[in-house]
Write a structure and sequence with these properties.
Number of strands: 2
Strand order of the largest sheet: 1-2
Helix content: 55-70%
Largest sheet: 2 strands, parallel
Number of helices: 8
Structural class: mainly alpha
Number of domains: 1
Length: 178
Amino acid sequence: MYWISVTALGALVYFYLKGRKKNDPEELKSESTEKISEDHQPSEIEIGNLNSSEDMLKTLKKIKTPWEKHLGYIQCLDPVYKKRPQDQKMHDLAKELAQAYIMEFSDMKEAVFEKLGDAPKVVAIFKQLAILFEEDHEYENAIEVCQNAMAHGLSDGTKTGYEGRLERLAKKLKTSAK
C-alpha cells in the first residue's frame, strides 16, 4: 500500500514540476522532451518514449537532485515492472533499472528519507528487485537485496517485512540446492 502512495506522490510531483497536466495521449506521444524541474534546461531531460535501459539510465544521470532522481527511477521503472509478466524484455529491463537504482540509493537516501517522513520507510524498488531475482530463481541475489534494504532501515510494506521475505527466500534456496 505504501508503494502506491510513493508512486502517487511521484506522479503528483512530476505534474506539479511540469507545470500542467496533459490528458491527451496523442499529445503525450508527440512530445519527446519534457521539463522535469525548473533547475534543468528544457532540452536536458528527455522523457517521452525511452525504449532501452541505456536511454533511461542516460536520462536519469542528467537529473541533478536526489529526490527528482528517485522520482525519475520510479517513473521509468513502474510501467516496465508492471509489464514484466507478459514480456521477458520488460522483466530484464526492470531488473537492470532496479539494480542501477540500488547502486545509487546511498546518494539519494537522505533526500528520500526526508520526503518519506517517519517509519516505516518503504522504497518499493528494493522489494521489486527482490521479486525479480526470485522470479529468476536467483535466491542468493534476492536475499542480498533484502539484507541491503534492511541495512538502510527500509520496510517492504508487508506484514512480515523483509525478515519474513528472507525466511521464505532461504527456504527456496535450500530446496533449490537439493
